[in-house]
Design brief:
Helix content: 25-40%
Strand content: 15-25%
Strand order of the largest sheet: 5-4-1-6-11-8-12-10-9
Shape: globular
Number of domains: 1
Largest sheet: 9 strands, mixed
Distance between the termini: 63 Å
Number of helices: 11
CATH architecture: Alpha-Beta Complex
Bound molecules: 1-O-phosphono-alpha-D-glucopyranose
Structural class: alpha/beta
Number of strands: 13
Length: 289
């Protein structure tokens, strides 16, 4: 059976405390890497993977995220009147053609699993993607597109995975690996944020998932896990009896943009691809004053 992934859930209700003071007022997903906010990279990656509907799971005070994708009549009229057609295209192009956007509030910060569950009515009864915009993935083939083509073969639940240093396992969902076939990794369990000595491997979930709608039923129970939060990782484990899980070792470089260092790395790497910018960056760094 050929099924398409048409919808992506973007959980964007978090407070962004790792990026204070920048995120005191500004939603962390509006922080830019080079020339555009993180949320826009996520939406562009989703659109490039064939997604047609973006579902923001948001919180009061983060209305700017929706506004970024809406028309800006005064700005557009001003750019049009001055003949600034390139800039007009930038202002109009934040939401890729053919993509719709909807949002739902996460009333309380109860965890990633809860955030995804808040989107259940907008998702309906079909497989869907989840992307965490702080995880920026630079790749020739967008990460989500790689996942969807792998998922067409496997079905079930899938997460993008990569090796992390042993010292970092407590920041991620970690796989208990049972086998590997090319870039696909089979697992019979997952552990959310284990201490290094308890981690079953160093293979970590990063912020890209494809989920069967049955995961939403597993989240109905509202079970609390690591950190007292409702964890998506636990719902994936609870689904394993009926729904296979695969990790995909994607091709590309993932940057954790939930920190100032990650945002800087992303900005530099993206900027360095612009004509002449690589040389400029080298020159800045080699100047002694
Ligand atoms: C979440 C998930 C975790 C995953 C991580 C990827 O954690 O709970 O399993 O490895 O995203 O970024 P968070 O970063 O929201 O604490």
């Amino acid at each position: 059976m050929h099924r398409d992934i048409r919808k992506v859930v973007l959980p964007v209700a978090g407070l962004g405390t790792r990026c204070l003071p920048a995120t005191k007022v500004l939603p962390k997903e509006m922080l830019p890497a080079w020339d555009r906010p993180l949320i826009q990279y996520a939406v562009e990656e989703a659109a490039a993977a064939g997604i047609r509907e973006v579902i923001l799971v948001t919180a009061p005070g983060k209305e700017m995220l929706e506004q970024h994708f809406r028309p800006a009549p005064a700005l557009e009229a001003s750019l049009a009147a001055r003949g600034k057609h390139d800039l007009l295209a930038q202002a109009r192009g934040t939401l890729p053609a053919g993509v719709g956007i909807a949002s739902v509030l996460q009333p309380e910060a109860l965890g990633l699993g809860h955030a995804v569950w808040c989107a259940r009515e907008l998702v309906g009864n079909e497989p869907f993607a989840v992307m965490l915009p702080d995880d920026l993935v630079l790749a020739d083939t967008p990460c989500l597109a790689q996942m969807i083509s792998a998922w067409r073969e496997t079905g079930g639940n899938m997460a993008a995975v990569e090796e992390v240093p042993a010292a970092d396992t407590a920041r991620y969902g970690i796989l208990r690996v049972t086998g590997e076939r090319g870039p696909l990794v089979a697992a019979d369990s997952l552990v959310e944020k284990p201490a290094p000595q308890d981690a079953p491997s160093r293979l970590a979930i990063i912020g890209r998932y494809i989920l069967e709608p049955s995961v939403l039923r597993a989240l109905d129970a509202g079970k609390r896990g690591a950190g007292g939060e409702i964890q998506l990782t636990d719902a994936l484990v609870d689904s394993m009896a009926t729904t296979p899980f695969h990790g995909l070792r994607f091709a590309g470089r993932r940057i954790d943009c939930g920190s100032a260092a990650g945002l800087l790395e992303a900005s530099v790497r993206i900027a360095a691809r612009q004509p002449g910018m690589g040389e400029k960056i080298h020159a800045w760094l080699s100047r002694d004053r």
